[in-house]
Amino acid sequence: xxxxxxxxxxxxxxxxxxxxxxxxxxxxxxxxxxxxxxxxxxxxxxxxxxxxxxxxxxxxxxxxxxxxxxxxxxxxxxxxxxxxxxxxxxxxxxxxxxxxxxxxxxxxxxxxxxxxxxxxxxxxxxxxxxxxxxxxxxxxxxxxxxxxxxxxxxxxxxxxxxxxxxxxxxxxxxxxxxxxxxxxxxxxxxxxxxxxxxxxxxxxxxx
Length: 207
Description:
The protein is an alpha+beta fold and 207 residues long. 33% of the residues lie in helices and 20% in strands.
């Protein structure tokens, strides 16, 4: 089947990675292969470009029990390899169904996949922002060479025509427990958090 859509490309690329690398690592770690869907999503207007590169939603959020992985549409075709590295990060979340945040078993899986800690505002090497290590990067490069680049051009949030609601209080929730609070987008952008302030297992997400 010819690949004509972004979702077809993401699914094809991640299926190859799952068959050749991710799946065996998941099984060796004692987990089951997660049911995952992949799609690109519009970045929130007014947020810093690339700040949130991907999100994984728990299976309970989907009526048919899938983990939904959303990757920012600020990626371009030339960013295909980086896009897949982010998708692998989110796949690790899916395998754990969003348990453990960015610590413990999540870090163990990321390392097994070939991901390394990347730079954040807090640290020079954090598993909140992973990057592909040499072996994973080589594997991904081969897949991109075989499939071609993702059929997508980057979108610019600042040119969307959507007005930013500067004073809107957004709901921030934990992906694991019931902790939640409201804050402005400016405040949310300034927060440098790795895990939930209450349970330390989930990740805080703005809705």
